[in-house]
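Technical annex, item 7. During the second reporting period the consortium partners agreed on a shared format for inverse folding records so that results from different sites could be compared directly. Each record opens with the tokenized structure and is followed by the designed sequence. A conforming record, contributed by the partner at site C, is shown below for reference.
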């Protein structure tokens, strides 16, 4: 296929067509209406990039197909860009191993991915997928990789400090389209992402599946907002070991957990050698539920996960923490899991222990009544939806 060059002036763009890649995605196409005064808001994107691409401030783009950023290619998204996705689970943005996304909005000019529907709903489109080369425990180790639920793209490896770029002040709305009964998009999916990547000030708003999910990796994330997710708001699995700081979760309808933490992917197994488990650190966490009469769990820890929580506020759940599986209890008894400074409000049962470990709420929690949570109002202004 011919590759037409394009000039990008002050929001004046001709057309860009880049060649086919060795996959099933379409060519990248950026089309803009003609005439003497081209309309910079009439741009459509999708396909596999073969050269760097910049989405420009002041411009609204239509995402019509999966946009794939392969190794060696950089997608730059400037502050204030709005990307409106065509309805469909196969419409998403994926940054492959070795690809880079530099999406840096600001608090007053965030980057927004949303639905193009006149009446948007959760599940209208896919979401944002980042795939790195950091360790995962679903494979033996070294440079072995697994493949993502959406797109079948490789992730995982041995590079703990792998760098997939920067995501800052980015909001994703109405994500979570289901590819099939077993595979659904999340708002943000981080597959084996390394801690050289910057994740700061992100929001998943009104998604049909998980808001933010970590499939292994070491990436840290701060100022994380999940509002109105219909499945778990924050999820981790496959040996995730990053640090989450300032996390705000708000339930808007009856659905799954605020946090579901798995030590390994129970559909695949813990295949690492030597064996390791998910073991994130969570600092400053608020989870607002729908009231204790709704029967939900705020936090479920299972499949051997370890986790260290500090400064937690949980409101409006039947259960605060639900611990499953013997290995999860082993982690606590080995001092690899802890909860320090926590406050419960309208929570019927603070701890449900299904691990067979000999401990109760009095030994599991320390500093009850001392947690204040994420102080959301100090950092949510201007870029989040409420």
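Designed sequence (site C submission):
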């Amino acid at each position: 296929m011919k590759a037409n060059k394009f000039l990008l002036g002050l929001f004046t763009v001709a057309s860009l067509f880049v060649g086919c890649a060795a996959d099933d995605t379409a060519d990248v196409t950026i089309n803009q209406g003609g005439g003497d005064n081209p309309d910079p808001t009439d741009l459509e994107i999708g396909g596999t990039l073969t050269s760097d691409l910049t989405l420009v401030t002041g411009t609204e783009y239509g995402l019509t197909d999966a946009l794939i950023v392969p190794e060696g290619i950089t997608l730059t998204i400037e502050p204030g860009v709005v990307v409106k996705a065509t309805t469909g689970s196969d419409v998403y943005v994926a940054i492959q191993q070795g690809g880079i996304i530099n999406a840096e909005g600001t608090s007053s000019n965030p980057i927004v991915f949303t639905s193009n529907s006149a009446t948007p709903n959760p599940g209208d489109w896919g979401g944002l997928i980042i795939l790195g080369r950091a360790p995962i425990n679903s494979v033996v180790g070294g440079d072995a990789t697994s493949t993502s639920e959406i797109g079948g793209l490789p992730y995982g490896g041995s590079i703990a400090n792998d760098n997939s770029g920067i995501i800052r002040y980015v909001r994703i709305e109405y994500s979570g389209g289901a590819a099939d009964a077993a595979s659904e998009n999340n708002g943000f999916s981080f597959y084996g992402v390394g801690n050289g990547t910057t994740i700061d000030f992100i929001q998943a708003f009104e998604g049909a599946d998980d808001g933010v999910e970590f499939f292994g990796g070491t990436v840290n994330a701060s100022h994380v907002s999940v509002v109105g997710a219909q499945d778990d708001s924050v999820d981790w699995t496959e040996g995730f070991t990053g640090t989450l700081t300032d996390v705000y979760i708000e339930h808007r309808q009856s659905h799954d957990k605020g946090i579901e933490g798995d030590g390994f992917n129970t559909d695949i197994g813990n295949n690492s050698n030597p064996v390791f488990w998910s073991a994130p650190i969570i600092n400053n966490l608020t989870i607002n539920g729908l009231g204790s009469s709704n029967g939900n769990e705020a936090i479920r820890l299972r499949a051997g996960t370890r986790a260290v929580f500090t400064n937690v506020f949980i409101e409006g759940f039947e259960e605060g923490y639900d611990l499953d599986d013997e290995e999860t209890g082993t982690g606590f008894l080995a001092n690899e899991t802890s909860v320090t400074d926590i406050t419960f409000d309208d929570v019927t049962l603070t701890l449900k222990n299904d691990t067979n470990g000999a401990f109760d709420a009095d030994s599991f929690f320390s500093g009850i009544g001392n947690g204040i949570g994420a102080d959301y109002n100090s950092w949510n202004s201007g870029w989040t939806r409420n």
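Confidence is low (pLDDT under 50) at residues 1-42. The longest strand covers residues 308-324. All partners now use this format for quarterly exchanges.
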